[in-house]
Amino acid sequence: MSINKPPRHLNEMPYRCPICTNELLLDSSNKSFHCINNHHFDLAKQGYLNLLPVQHKNSKQPGDSKEMLQARRNFLEAGYFQNLATNLAITIDAYTTELQSIDLLDLGCGEGYYTRQIASFFSDKKELQLYGLDIAKIAVAMAAQKLPLAQFAVASFQRLPYADNFFDLLIRVFAPSNTDELYRVLKPSGLLLTVTPGPRHLWQLKEFIYLEAREHETETPIAIGFQALTSQRLHATITPTAEHRLALLQMTPFAWRANDDAVSAIKERNELSIETDFIITLSKKI
């Protein structure tokens, strides 16, 4: 896998201080960044930057655990959501034909599956500079190890540590966000590609957990300052192994509602076909 666009040198990175919002500059050591107020942030050995100060954390180790992230990686790399990853890449390709290169940020990148898939799709099509952000330090470290040419950061979704009007495209797959921040970091006419659950998403898992399973709301509101370009529904059926069913459960909010009996029943089913249902919405900054 390769990224055609030569990676920016570290002193050209668009980072800004998560504490005072001033520009971050690379130290002479090439191992850390600082702002004019002398706030310092070290590069990890894997190459990512931790821009989540202690005062912005809601817990000691925000985000998923190492075990959960490895289970997520195993599930995704088994190809169950490959149709979604391919659809995202095709959508990006179709709506960026006039761009010779793309600065792209994967919000809530996790261990980097979708970032890698997009990099692979565009390896001989278009120049990319890929960035990824997640609140989980372990996830970002895993992503950086797999895709060292991308630029990953640990940071809050509420305070994106990037310069104004920098990105051509943001992708957000089931990730939280701050609309004002999305608008701020996108270039004029920049694109926002969002994935939300469709009405039947993981219906068969829900039936194990809830007395009365209900469909997801299909309404996808377009944020102020954005114009909808396209919206599509991507529906399919997968048949994960017992191990992958449990990994899928841990990837969802359902895990918090599933009692031991429900988890056992999901695991012990001989075979279980599960619907996947995604709403993919592309909008433009106006």
Could you write a compact summary of the structure shown?
This protein is α/β, with parallel strands linked by helices. The chain has helices at 66-77, 82-95, 113-121, 137-146, 179-185, 203-209, 242-250, 260-268; strands spanning 25-26, 32-34, 40-42, 49-50, 101-107, 127-134, 151-154, 167-173, 186-197, 226-238, 274-285.
Measured as a percent range, the helix fraction is: 25-40%
> Given the structure, what is the number of helices?
8
Number of E-type strands: 11
Query: Taking all residues together, what is the mean pLDDT?
Result: 90
> What sequence of helices (H) and strands (E) makes up the elements?
EEEEHHEHEHEEHEHEHHE
Provide the low-confidence segments as ranges: none
Strand content: 25-35%
Report the sheet with the most strands, covering strand number, pairing sense and barrel closure: 8 strands, mixed
- The rounded distance between the terminal residues' Cα atoms is 34 Å
Structural class category: alpha/beta
